[in-house]
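Quarterly update from the structural biology core.
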Amino acid sequence: MGRRTSDGRHTRLYASNSFKYDVSTPNAVLQKDAEAKIDVEHICEPSYASGRVYVSGMIDSLMSECYQKPNIIAAVNLLMFGSPSDPESQRVFQVPTPKSLNGKTFGECFRKVLALNLICIGCLHSGTETTPPYVHTNPPADTVIYHTDYLYLIGKPRPTLPL
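Predicted structure, tokenized:
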């Protein structure tokens, strides 16, 4: 359900989905947390999605997470660079989409790549005349992948996929 708090004048119900219900007013209004709204507003902008814009709140959030969970830095380093003692260890890498996956859905790509002991976490969609290239992490299963896209994978790096 949720939890209820009161300061004596106002009573608030906090639902498990992080929306706030202000029951102190005659017409209870559903409000989203202001910070969450700010984060969502910019995330769909092409300039942000293509990595051409930096949002200062992102570094604040990352620093807070690193303070609370210091192992995050080590985990990100392992994902990005692999183990210093084994440069061929599993990490995040990208490969061009094989022609055999052209026009397939992300769900199909995910299953085929998983059979190679790799995890596909997203793709870099190539740009068009009107849209810059952008990274799409965890896209819906029905997202179409084209041979001009690149796949982001976790696993032992390789230059191409044998598909």
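The radius of gyration is 21 Å.
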